[in-house]
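Batch manifest, entry 17 of 40.
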Amino acid sequence: MKKYFILIIIIFNANRLFAHCQVPCGIYDDALRIIMIKEDFNTIDKAINMISKLSKKEDAISQNQINRWIDAKDAHASNIQGIVSDYFLAQRIKKSNTYYVDQLKNLHHILVIAMKCKQDLDINNVKTGLSLIDDFSNLYFDKHGLDHLKKWDNIK
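Output type: structure tokens
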């Protein structure tokens, strides 16, 4: 029941979840941002598979669905770029952090992979993106944070 409650909150407040005023108010959850990025990569994965499947058909409905899946793929790649840029890079990654350079490199690589997800249908970009977000999580979170992330990950 808890899963459905959280899902309903996310669905009906999606516009509020993505909007961030860049004021360090402390109400946003870093682990949730990671889960959102993973969900975006998984949606891109599904979109790539559907585009590949539908491209074998020539009827108008299939062509329409291809366009819709392309739009969804691009929107989710943009979501990833927004979270990485506006949330992590602009606000959460601090120069004083021990892993600052490694975090910057990792997040930059995620931005590039998200861009590549827009450009083509290579499923390896999704796999790389998911691997990079796991690597970033290990650089970013302490043990308590990783435990919190695992709890979020298990809710879905």
